[in-house]
Amino acid sequence: MTPDEYRAAGHRLVDWVADFREAIEELPVRSGAIPGQVLAALPSEPPQVPDGLEALISDLETIIVPASTHPQHPRYLAFFPANASLSTALADIVSTGLGQLGITWESSPALTELETVVCDWMRVLYGLSDSWSGTIHDTASTAALVAMICARERALGHPSGGLQAADRPLVVYATGQAHSSVTKAVALSGIGPSNLRQVETDDELAMRPEVLRRMIRADIEGGLVPAAIVATVGTTATTAVDPVADIAAVAADFGAWLHVDAAMAGSVMLLEDYRWMWEGVEAADSISINPHKWMGTALDCSLYFVRDSAELRAVMATNPSYLRSAADGDVIQYRDWGIPLGRRFRALKLWFQLRLDGIDAIRARIRRDLEHARWLAGVVAAEPGWELVTPTNLQTVCVRHRPPGLAAGDVDAHTRAWVAAINDSGEFYLTPAEVDGRWIARISFGAERTEHHHVMRLWERMREAVSGVEPWGVPR
User: Fold this and answer.
1) pTM (2 decimals)?
2) Do residues 383 and 364 lie in contact, with contact meaning Cβ atoms separated by under 8 Å?
């Protein structure tokens, strides 16, 4: 493709994306595709000659879009927000168009130094001290793995002979509400999921520090080594908030690495009045926050902050001859801050978003989402037969409808049935979740275009849905 051909195709595709975003509310939120639908619609052999852009766009419209669920839809209330603001979509065009090779400072000084700048901007916006340094990973799952590897090496005494040289097993502590990526990180770091301890939670599903302390003491007496603690600020199912300050005190007493997972809820730290949620975070060792969730930066863009970058580099650094340059020692080499050698120009997305959208607009949208959640929580709490399962800490409302006299197991079936009825309609998309053995409905606000009239219609639809299924979950 020549630059002139690219220019024409780019204009056409930008118009297509803009038209798609303008008309997105007319589409079902969740795809109604059946397994194998896209496979059956596409040829089994690759094309031998060009098809042309219009044929490609036709397939986008007839094959891809109908089989896509739409996180940018204003009635998308599932999982967590997964926004892709158009300002950051522009950055992705520039990132790919520039085609930078992010392996060393020398291979792209701009990529390296812009990442340093935007990470520091975000540090300031989150209210973190200048003792923190940041880098950009793809997701918080990678951040969790890096944290567990660093915790492993600290516990073993870096440089270590690895787990094969360890004379005592390492242990990691988190609650049962921690994200599944924590379990995966513990497994992939070699510590092993059988050495992941689930710490008891309180009535609000937050970690109980006094129980954590007792568990660690018992494990030490049993010959184990407390390597890491994962505190979650905004758990996946209910946005519960672990008490970071108290947990940090325990971590300090036993020399354990403290990783704070604030992947979704970290965006609320842009609002000073919500920073109480991670009070004590300055005593942690690492923090992960995903701007590609609630803040609105397009996937993938996950910030990983560390309090001691030298310790991170000691674990992650390699220095093959073909990557050395005269700038070594004077510049940051982000290959030594994580797992991959090469990296995309992800910093452009934050740079574009902050400069084109502005932090005031981002903060206003986050406050709007918090108000949506407060409004819905208020009407649910006031309606007979409905209940809030957990406090509404952030933008996720956890609810249950409980018809009179229905057994707990039947309430679970009823919950899953009315949520499925809403989702199958295509009008809204919610996610059910199992919390402490009981099923709940999660309503997670945060899509860029969700307004109050959508929330009012949701509440109307929820009441319609529960009246449209029998109390034990059978459609009427």
Assistant:
1) 0.93
2) no
